[in-house]
Design a protein that fits this description.
The complex is a heterodimer of chains A (354) and B (366).
Chain A lengths: L3 E10 L2 E11 L4 E5 L6 H9 L6 E6 L2 E2 L10 E4 L11 H10 L5 H14 L15 H13 L5 E5 L7 H18 L2 E6 L2 H7 L2 E6 L2 E6 L1 H6 L4 H6 L6 E8 L2 E4 L2 E6 L3 E7 L5 E3 L3 E10 L3 E8 L2 E8 L10 E5 L6 E4 L10 E2 L4
Helix pairs in contact in A: 2-3, 2-4, 3-4
Chain B lengths: L1 H8 L10 H43 L7 H24 L3 H22 L17 H9 L11 H32 L5 H13 L6 H10 L6 H25 L3 H9 L4 H9 L4 H17 L2 H6 L8 H12 L4 H32 L4
Helix pairs in contact in B: 2-3, 2-15, 3-4, 6-9, 6-12, 6-14, 7-9, 9-12, 10-11, 12-15, 14-15
The chains are: A alpha+beta (354), B mainly alpha (366).
Bound molecules: adenosine-5'-diphosphate and magnesium ion (MG).
Chain lengths: 354, 366
């Protein structure tokens, strides 16, 4: 187990600066998720932790010791690659055994550890197979077993669920989370899927173009996104954004007037779909599409400020397509961003038009 | 629901009904005709390749008097040409696997029987006298009278050993160097990498004959003229570029994350290379090994130029001198040496066929 620290870490590939300046502390035993769109430098950060990439600048610390120049093989880090990276020419047993070969573990003890690791991720009956004879989910478990068998001080998971089908993804999510609870190993999960991050991690590090945009618990990121980027990235269906100019305490967009408190100038209002209510008051629109989602129903409403998504509880639609409706919300659920800097204005709210 | 929408969209309903059986019969006819044309083409192309080898073998096992005994050849061809045609036709027309096997077995049985009857009585091993009679040249010459400029032949097994030594050593060096170099080229960025890759191909484009004279001088100056190691060095130099290029294609196809995984699993770079990367390119190594070996086995120009003493002769030189010494006089012995020279390449090709096929799959990219 280890406490991880990035201090002003920079990573360049040739002239391209992928990570300009990264500062981050991951506590011992924590489960964090690196979340961001594809190409934002998540894997690069992870590979620096694993020792596969050397940082171009700054310091990387494990338990307070600078490890920049420690070789990958000396870091005792378990990593599950996006492709799983199983050794195709070895049996599952030899795959899981591989890390122990270099630890000079006695054969009997090593085999016992392989057994334990295989039991942990439930692949014990597959030990004699080749990776090519396994399904995606089984390969993934084997990769996990291989990462865990060396009892790593840090477990790194690079998009571990992205190659699985939807139902398997759901169960692996639960399993990885309970594995972490059971083993307590510091874990970094890389993902571009916000649901994965919010459901699994204690803390989310939201990244954008190599920079950390916000660090916080899933609730923090959902309820108090520090920027438009985070607000847009977290949450499904995506947050509704309405841009306008505040004059004399009111934002007027296409006839709808939103009273605003605590902010002025060019603003963007963020409203989550489930915070919107179809009712007697609010701004007007026409329902153009209805998407039943099981316990909830998503209405797509065409309004003066573009399409707005409204999520209503209930399993059957009470409104129909083409209906003219009014959409309201509670002021405390509104998020107000400064359009120019794209930052959240704390304490600012808008009210629904009466 | 979808089925209801279709009639509105298409006009199929208003057209006369389609005679599906006629359409299927026409398609079947076209497919058959195409197959027959294809096989006819294959027969036409393969006969000129198969026949010379066939003649070589037949002459080696049948010639008695020294002169060409064409009657045997004609009789054997009367068996082989129909057999080849019958083989292809069976393959083209067989409707199932079972039919194919029955057909091929029948053709083979008939061909073997006809061959045994028509050619069998003429077969003998006398032409392979060089294998057990070191002074076979005198025997052959005495059969046909005086030969001018008679050559002193070494034992054929000595020449055989030299060929194995040259081809084997060359293969070992090329495989080792090419694997390491290709791995480096595939995995590491360094200044001049791409120009190096380009020059690898350009090097291979030179006709080797143009370099014979400078090579001769170089070998002479460093004292390796008329030595096997000199020839091996030259061969290695000419074979390496292409082997590196092929191997680079194989290494490129190995995902780098299994290597990185090995490094995080505690392996050193060398251990990762040996235990994780090399097994993935095993087929590539086998392929270049076979090609390099056969290239060394066939080598003629360099050994002819750089080797002089007859104790340094390789099989190709041996073959050349046998032909030169008794050519036009004893087809039988010349053919027998040819067959003996051919057999190792043939065995190697057949054993490695599976891996050679993968060379095109392994792919070559820059
Ligand atoms: N080895 C490399 N050489 C050059 N550029 C790289 C390399 N690895 C990643 N990059 C670049 O760095 C950026 C971040 O990549 P990565 O960390 O893989 O993103 P992701 O967040 O999708 O995992 C991308 O623009 C990618 O092209
Ligand atoms: Mg990635």
């Amino acid at each position: 187990m280890a406490k991880i620290e990035f201090r002003n870490v920079v990573k360049r590939f040739g002239a391209v600066e992928v990570i300009p300046d990264m500062n981050l502390v991951i506590e011992d035993g924590e489960f964090v998720a690196l979340l961001g769109p594809s190409g934002c430098g998540k894997s690069t950060s992870l590979f620096m932790l694993a020792g596969i990439y050397l940082p171009s600048g700054g310091e990387l610390l494990f338990d307070g010791h600078i490890v920049n120049e420690v070789e990958a093989r000396d870091r005792n880090v378990g990593i599950v690659f996006q492709s799983y990276a199983l050794y195709p020419h070895m049996s599952v047993r030899d795959n899981i055994l591989f890390p122990l070969r270099f630890k000079k573990t006695p054969r009997d003890e090593a085999l016992a550890k392989v057994k334990t690791a295989a039991d942990l991720v439930r692949v014990a009956e597959l030990l004699d197979r080749r990776p090519s004879e396994l399904s995606g989910g089984q390969q993934q478990r084997v990769a996990l077993a291989r990462a865990l068998v060396k009892e790593p001080q840090l477990l790194l998971l690079d998009e571990p669920l992205s190659n699985l089908d939807a139902s398997l993804r759901l169960s692996m999510r639960t399993e990885i989370k309970s594995l972490h609870a059971q083993l307590g190993v510091t874990t970094v999960l890389v993902t571009h899927d916000q649901i994965e991050a919010t459901t699994m991690a204690d803390r989310i590090i939201c990244m954008r173009a190599g920079r950390i945009e916000q660090v916080g618990t899933p609730d923090d990121l959902y309820l108090k996104p520090s920027s438009l980027f985070v607000a847009g990235f977290i949450g499904s269906p995506p947050i509704n954004l309405i841009a306008g100019e505040a004059e004399a305490g009111t934002i007027t967009v296409n006839g709808a007037r939103f009273p605003v408190e605590g902010a002025s100038g060019a603003l963007t209002v963020g409203l989550r779909a489930e915070h919107l209510r179809i009712g007697d008051t609010g701004f007007a629109g026409r329902i153009v599409q209805i998407e039943p989602m099981g316990r909830e129903i998503l209405y797509v409403v065409e309004t003066g400020m573009g399409a707005v998504r409204v999520l209503e509880q209930g399993s059957s639609a009470v409104h129909s397509t083409g209906e003219q409706v009014k959409i309201g919300f509670l002021p405390e659920n509104s998020l107000v961003f400064e359009t120019a800097r794209q930052k959240l204005i704390g304490g600012a709210h808008v009210r629904a038009p009466a | 629901m979808a089925a209801q929408a279709i009639p509105e969209l298409s006009t199929a309903a208003s057209e006369p009904p389609v005679d599906w059986d006629a359409v299927a019969a026409r398609a079947r006819g076209v497919r058959r005709a195409k197959a027959v044309v294809l096989y006819a083409f294959l027969i036409a192309v393969s006969l000129p390749i198969i026949l010379p080898y066939f003649w070589l073998v037949t002459i080696a096992f049948s010639a008695r008097t020294g002169v060409a005994e064409t009657a045997v050849l004609w009789r054997s061809m009367a068996v082989v040409v129909p057999a080849v045609v019958a083989f292809w036709l069976t393959a083209a027309l067989a409707q199932s696997r079972r039919q194919l096997w029955i057909g091929l077995t029948a053709v083979a049985a008939i061909a073997i029987f006809a061959f045994a009857v028509l050619v069998g009585p003429d077969l003998h091993l006398g032409n392979f006298i060089f294998l057990w009679e070191p002074d076979f040249a005198s025997v052959v010459r005495s059969r046909i009278g005086e030969v001018k400029g008679a050559v002193q032949f070494p034992n054929v097994w000595h020449a055989f050993g030299n060929s194995i030594l040259i081809a084997g050593t060359q293969t070992a060096i090329v495989v080792t160097v090419a694997s390491l170099a290709a791995y480096y080229l595939s995995r590491f960025q360094f200044p001049g990498r791409s120009s190096m890759l380009r020059s690898l191909l350009v090097l291979h484009a030179f006709p080797v004959l143009t370099l014979i004279v400078p090579m001769f001088l170089m070998l002479y100056w460093i004292g390796l003229l008329d030595t096997l190691s000199g020839v091996i060095l030259v061969l290695v130099a000419f074979e390496l570029p292409f082997a590196i290029f092929i191997m680079k294609g194989f290494f490129d196809a190995v995902p780098w994350d299994i290597e990185m995984s090995a490094l995080t699993d505690g392996a050193s770079r060398r251990q990762a290379f040996v235990s994780v990367v090399l097994p993935q390119v095993r087929n590539g190594i086998l392929a270049i090994a076979v090609f390099t070996f056969i290239r060394g086995w066939e080598e003629y120009i360099f050994v002819f130029t750089f080797l002089i003493r007859n104790s340094n002769w390789t099989m190709s030189l041996y073959m050349y001198w046998v032909r030169d010494d008794v050519m036009g006089v004893d087809y039988g012995v010349v053919s027998a040496v040819g067959v003996f020279y051919l057999v190792p390449s043939l065995i190697l090709y057949m054993a490695a066929q599976r891996y050679l096929m993968q060379m095109s799959i392994g792919g070559v990219k820059g």
